[in-house]
Specification:
With about 400 residues, this protein is of the alpha/beta class. Helices cover about 30% and strands about 25% of the residues.
Amino acid sequence: MDKPKVVLGVSGGIAAYKACELLRRLTESGHDVRVVPTASALHFVGAATWSALSGNPVSTEVWDNVHEVPHVRIGQHADLVVVAPATADTLARAAHGLADDLLTNTLLTARCPVVFAPAMHTEMWEHPATQENVATLRRRGALVIEPAVGRLTGVDTGKGRLPDPAEIFEVCRRVLARGVTEPDLKGRHVVVSAGGTREPLDPVRFLGNRSSGKQGYALARTAAARGARVTLIAANTALPDPAGVDVVPVETAVQLREAVLKAAADADAVVMAAAVADFRPAAYAAGKIKKRDNQDPEPVALVRNPDILAEISADRVRPGQVIVGFAAETDDVLANGRAKLKRKGCDFLVVNEVGERKTFGSEENEALVLGADGSEIPVPHGPKEALAETVWDLVAGRLG
């Protein structure tokens, strides 16, 4: 089989050196990568580096190898074009259809999915001109990943940092796997909760659960790859931020509720994949609870936590908002799932049977997706991103 053909465009920004890691991941995973840097990008990383890492010739000019018509052929034959980093200048030229170098010519001739991973200073990203250009590219079907928040050039910090290359690679992999040019969730805002809440008992102890957050993160990554603006509310996870996703860290069920209600105010869909504690200690001990010789510990009184899924299902702030819940069951999966779906009032409930090969923290999952319309969709044992794709297929179909 022919290797998938990927064009890696590199703009002239300091983050150009990070594209070397993205290139390595693409080539090592079996992709045929052609690097097309701008002339400015070569001030940061030389052509010899790109050529050695990709195994393909590198050029910035339409005049090189004219007999091969590279300004047309490269884009025509690509299965994916990803520009990382994409500077404000490159975004502007792409949005206005300029074709003054090999990269912009390639973007004009490409009929495959196109991904931009912006990197620039915060002021440049937030400028109305850049936002207009980004909106134009997204409207045309390009996937423009939201930049990360963090350290920029010099001492500056803010939104505009290139997302981690490993996370950009995950976006590219998902886009290629779908094989769809037009992102079906573009223009949509979705909220995903992930991880497990922790309810403090004293300064060193808490009541929690074993959720790793991996399924929620898979949902967030997949939604971003399908063009959505994603808010990920992460409870006590130790996972890298997905590319293009706004991450809101929380700890307790009460904090998660506040974050979900705030983010859901303008959301088209909310997927509650987090494992939320049903109860919390009625009282918090200011000092560590001591073990006393020959004495049993005092009972720990518990109080109920808010039922976030039932609350947002009953009080939908937007007409047509789609709500998806998750439930872990050990027996009578279908009966318990149906009862819970009716009790919570959500549109879909993803029921996980906890047991062998189906434990928290696994890279794989198996589930039954129950619909309020009576539908039942089994998702066989496999990668968690497969379940994520099924969930977003259902959400996209409901959103229409």
